[in-house]
Amino acid sequence: xxxxxxxxxxxxxxxVQFLVFSFVGAKQTNIxxxxxALLALKAHITHDPSNLLATNWSTTTSVxxxxxxxxxxxxxxxxxxxxxxxxxxxxxxxxxxxxxxxTILGFQNNSFxxxxxxxxxxxxxxxxxxxxxxxxxxxxxxxxxxxxKLQFLGLNEIKFSGTIPQSLGNLSSLQQLHLxxxxxxxxxxxxxxxxxxxxxxxxxxxxxxxxFPSIFFNMPSLLYIDAGDNGLSGGLPxxxxxxxxxxxxxxxxxxxxxxxxxxxxxxxxxxxxxxxSYNYFTGAIPKEIGQLTQLKEIRIGHSRLQGSIPKDIGNLxxxxxxxxxxxxxxGAIPKEMVT
Length: 339
Hints:
This protein is α/β, with parallel strands linked by helices. It has helices at 2-43, 52-56, and strands at 45-47, 69-71, 78-82, 89-90, 104-106, 111-112, 128-130, 152-154, 176-178, 185-186, 200-202, 207-210, 224-226, 231-234, 249-251, 256-257, 273-275, 297-299, 306-307, 321-323, 328-329.
């Protein structure tokens, strides 16, 4: 009996030791995996004028102490890779997809080029992704839609062409979408307005066409829409503004919108900046704009508006900037606006 008891104790001791070594070995392997991924990135950098990576990303120091790197305390894995504005040139290697604990990935303000590898779809923990101001010169990759924890997606001035994928509407946690200064064409996907968490949508200076999407359910989180300097046309859907109660900025200048300015804009009670200049709007300025008591700026110049300036605009006591030039407006400036 004593022999069996001793054997059990000995077995348990070996088992516990096995678990400890397995855990330590797995932890070490994970650190090495992250290190190898980052060294692969370093090897694909062709220009590092300040030698930031060349002198700092060294195997003689812990990955977690490298410049631009942060590790999580719990798993001791790389959670942040931010090399923004390092003035680097190079390509992104597929090994970067092995940084499976990454939550923040910042590459903006560099000169990376080539393609964005499909392996980056493995970064399922990402909440912040910014590749803005680089030279990728390709289409928006479809795998981005699989990063369902994303809250911030920055793709400004990358020379993206093609259309905006409908599948971006799957990013159910997204709060900010930045696609400014690209060469994107086609229409604005209606699926984007299915993202109830969306706060900011910026599509300025592309080649988008078609009509502005209709919105059919309440979006109280959406504060900012900028789709200026595109080729959008048709009338603005009246019902859309019923569902944007907290919108603060609406910038649709530099398009080809026609028809009348919808009176339902007055439903956007939080609106502070309204920019509709350089379009083909007709008819009168809606007097309901005078109900937007938070307005600080109105820009509806360079269009085809007619009639007189509504005296209701005089109710806008916070208004500091108004541009109505180059229209077909008539009559005197209402006294309510000059007192």
